[in-house]
Design brief:
The chain is α/β, with parallel strands linked by helices. It is built from 11 helices and 10 strands. The longest helix has 27 residues. The N terminus is likely disordered.
């Protein structure tokens, strides 16, 4: 009979930790099944600054991580003794924040005598996207990243294109700030956009006619700022809807070009922007075979790191000395 740390087929029970930015996430997964996903948000802490303060984020992770881990174990109905492995994000992200989760994960795994699995943050997002199996095109769109990858196999990833400036989620937050929606603004902007007319205002389509696979959103943000200066009476809902339409069109068109140019048939969309309802509708309308993560796994969380850690264990993709893995704030996905 398998023990508590194993499921049928011997999949280990993995605890995953993500402290790459401002949320402390700890999750538990067994194979492809998420058993717990606990996220302690720092939104209230950083809201008065209009963005994440790295030093404060690191200190808050340190304060709460042990409690968040205990809550995740309780939610999964397991104990530390049941764990078969511990995984943690090693990068990219804020270096101080990464070090908290990485150090906690190493110490926990060492003390329990189980494998430690360092995981790339974006690999976690891919693992959370509905159990899709390679080959596929991945569109990763979040506050820190917007990029297209060809995932030929787990561990064989080719970057096809990326944003030349702002990430899509970053642009959402900046335009939300222009509209007085506070921080973080992505979800608030999308909610406001749902009540607006997306054709009421003219905004430029970024990189119009571009046949490559890069993105750009900084100019669009500037265009919104100029529009608000010139038309101060413009309805905020119409501004939000028009902006959202242009961003979503850019993402959908870019992903469609990647599928066409590579001949791949399946798309995975991951990262915080994957929770955007309009983005999901537009991909469905385009007839693209697409997989999204469940909304609870779209934004940063520890469960996705547990899933990715389990995949790495199953395929034997571990570094020679995982306990020496250091935090890498600019860690590329290709070759990770």
């Amino acid at each position: 009979m398998p023990g508590p740390a194993e499921s049928k087929g011997g999949a280990p029970l993995v605890l995953g930790i993500d402290t790459s930015c401002d949320d402390t996430g700890v999750g538990v997964a067994r194979g492809p099944v998420v058993l717990a996903n606990v996220v302690e948000s720092q939104t209230a802490l950083h809201a008065r600054f209009g963005g994440v303060m790295p030093e404060l984020a690191s200190r808050e992770h340190l304060e709460v991580i042990a409690d968040v881990a205990q809550r995740a174990l309780a939610e999964a109905g397991v104990t530390l003794a049941d764990l078969g492995a511990v995984a943690a994000t090693r990068g990219p992200g804020l270096v101080g924040a990464l070090l908290v989760g990485l150090s906690y994960g190493k110490a926990l795994a060492w003390g329990l005598g189980v494998p430690f699995v360092p995981v790339h943050h974006l690999e976690g997002h891919l693992a959370a996207a509905g159990g899709a199996e390679p080959p596929f095109i991945a569109l990763l769109a979040s506050g820190g990243h917007t990029a297209l990858f060809a995932v030929h196999a787990w561990g064989q990833v080719e970057e096809l294109g990326r944003s030349r400036d702002d990430a899509a989620g970053e642009a959402f937050d900046k335009v939300a700030r222009l509209l007085g929606l506070g921080y973080p603004g992505g979800a608030a902007l999308a909610q406001l956009a749902a009540t607006g007319d997306d054709q009421a205002l003219s905004l430029p389509q970024p990189m119009q006619g571009h046949k490559g696979l890069d993105f750009s959103f900084s100019g669009l943000k500037t265009a919104v700022a100029l529009l608000l200066e010139r038309q101060p009476d413009a309805r905020p809902a119409d501004v939000a809807a028009s902006f959202e339409r242009v961003v979503v069109t850019s993402l959908v068109n870019g992903a469609a070009r990647a599928l066409s140019q590579t001949g791949m048939q399946r798309l995975v969309v991951a990262g915080g922007v994957a929770a955007n309802a309009r983005l999901r509708r537009e991909f469905a309308a385009a007839g693209i075979d697409v997989a999204f993560p469940p909304p609870a796994l779209a934004t940063d969380n520890g469960a996705m790191i547990a899933l990715a850690g389990g995949q790495r264990l199953a395929s034997g993709r571990l570094p020679p000395a995982p306990f020496t893995a250091d935090a890498e704030p600019y860690l590329p996905l290709v070759g990770a």
